[in-house]
Amino acid sequence: MRKPDAARLARAEALAAHDRRFPGFGVSLAGMDEVGRGPLLGPVVTACVIMPPGPILPFVDDSKKLSEARREEVCAQIREIALFVGIGEAGAAEIDRVNILEATRLAMRRAAQDAPATLCLVDALDNLGLPFPTKGLIHGDALSYSIAAASIVAKVTRDRMMLMLAETYPEYGLSRNKGYGTAEHIQAIRRYGACPEHRRSFIGKWIA
Questions:
Q1: Can you give the pLDDT at residue 2?
Q2: pLDDT of residue 49
């Protein structure tokens, strides 16, 4: 893997500088993000992370801006130094029962329920019913070091789940599409029908 250049170091410092404005940075300031609100299959997965004041990991950024290999590398670094990492998920049946927004909130509560946080920065969402305050930030994974770290952990965790499901349900191409509604995935639903991990509320127009 390439070493961080000046631009990458500056980017990481800018994300950390954003979070230093909030009380509890490096001690009890948490970040939280989700992945998997849009797919046709599998859970929505959330991560809640409390990062230490240093070292600032240079490749922490919005998970969508990183390659798969880089995400795996940085996820391991985050888990090595983080003061807290919590994972939450809500499965397809829960999503169908309560809708994706409420399922995401449920998964976030599960991720953060044991966090020793005094404030949690959350990508876009708020009013989560946690025992500490939350602050929703639009595009938070591109603004906040803590949320960016959570976005990486959530993405790596869910992708690994999809690879395991791909072994059970190889016909849907999950190792490639991660459950999203690609042409390949939709064609497979039409050909093979739905599996237990599909969100029925998302795929009704493609199944009888």
A1: 73
A2: 98
Compute the distance between CA of residue 112 and CA of residue 183 in angstroms, rounded to an integer. 35
Check which CATH number belongs to the domain holding 115 and give it: 3.30.420.10
Cα dist from 170 to 40, 79, 176, whole Å: 15, 30, 11
Which parts of the chain have pLDDT scores under 70? Answer: 1, 208
The residues pairing with 198 across neighbouring beta strands, listed in sequence order, are 41
Q: pTM surpassing 0.85?
A: yes
Angle at 178 between CA 174 and CA 184, to 5 degrees: 55
Which residues span the domain enclosing 58?
6-159
Total number of domains constituting the chain: 1
Name, in order, each residue with C-beta under 8 angstroms of 44's C-beta and a sequence gap of 6 or more. Answer: 34, 35, 36, 37, 89, 90, 95, 100, 103, 104, 107
Cβ–Cβ under 8 Å, residues 159 and 152:
no
Q: Classify 24 in phi/psi space as left (phi over 0), alpha (psi -120 to 50) or beta.
A: left
